[in-house]
Amino acid sequence: MPIRVLIVDDHALLREGLRQVLQLEPDIEVVGEAGSGGEAVRRAAQLRPDLVVMDINLPDMSGIEATRQIRSAAPSTQVLVLTIHDQEEYLLEAIAAGASGFVLKDVEPRALVEAVRLCCRGEGYVHPTLSARVLQLGTRRRERWTPLGGGIPEPLTRREFEVLQLVAEGVSNREIGQRLFISEKTVKNHITSIFRKLGVSDRTQAVIHAIREGWVKV
């Protein structure tokens, strides 16, 4: 089954360009377009796409609010934000609203297609120039790692959550082991378990997951 995509942007020319890029791929089908946030929410409810490519600047509501509404109504629909904004606050707000990916409009067509596929597989994607900022988040907001309910977030163990906190700070496996008084091999085993439980494949995606779950306050 092809990946069913809804394109949301208030510029018809850009929507057409995105359609042409995506429809070149045999595993992607553009099922609809929308030019505003309200229309995006309605079209997403009607079409139930696998993924929405969402602009942030829309005439009636922000793409971030539209993302929040779409994800609330249809959790299985992923959202890939495509925007000119490279400020950290937009990235964090989009992730907190439920977006699975965040790319800038200068992205290469090949990278955009890969982002669509990764988001639909549940792996997520962040534009390369912004990935480092996601990892830096853990260092700057270390004291704000607060799991919902005050306990250890399921399905992680207490030790895995401690490792995840240090991963988000950009700490190496060796240093994590030194801080927690465990071997580097044990650290690697914990990280493998964290990635498996969270359904992610790298450190950036793990931090994104933590933001989306409310473990890091944004």
From TrEMBL:
<dbReference type="InterPro" id="IPR016032">
    <property type="entry name" value="Sig_transdc_resp-reg_C-effctor"/>
</dbReference>
<protein>
    <recommendedName>
        <fullName>Stage 0 sporulation protein A homolog</fullName>
    </recommendedName>
</protein>
<dbReference type="InterPro" id="IPR011006">
    <property type="entry name" value="CheY-like_superfamily"/>
</dbReference>
<feature type="domain" description="Response regulatory">
    <location>
        <begin position="4"/>
        <end position="120"/>
    </location>
</feature>
<feature type="domain" description="HTH luxR-type">
    <location>
        <begin position="149"/>
        <end position="214"/>
    </location>
</feature>
<keyword id="KW-0597">Phosphoprotein</keyword>
<dbReference type="InterPro" id="IPR000792">
    <property type="entry name" value="Tscrpt_reg_LuxR_C"/>
</dbReference>
<dbReference type="InterPro" id="IPR039420">
    <property type="entry name" value="WalR-like"/>
</dbReference>
<feature type="modified residue" description="4-aspartylphosphate">
    <location>
        <position position="55"/>
    </location>
</feature>
<comment type="function">
    <text>May play the central regulatory role in sporulation. It may be an element of the effector pathway responsible for the activation of sporulation genes in response to nutritional stress. Spo0A may act in concert with spo0H (a sigma factor) to control the expression of some genes that are critical to the sporulation process.</text>
</comment>
<dbReference type="Pfam" id="PF00196">
    <property type="entry name" value="GerE"/>
</dbReference>
<dbReference type="InterPro" id="IPR058245">
    <property type="entry name" value="NreC/VraR/RcsB-like_REC"/>
</dbReference>
<dbReference type="Pfam" id="PF00072">
    <property type="entry name" value="Response_reg"/>
</dbReference>
<keyword id="KW-0238">DNA-binding</keyword>
<dbReference type="InterPro" id="IPR001789">
    <property type="entry name" value="Sig_transdc_resp-reg_receiver"/>
</dbReference>
<keyword id="KW-0804">Transcription</keyword>
<keyword id="KW-0805">Transcription regulation</keyword>
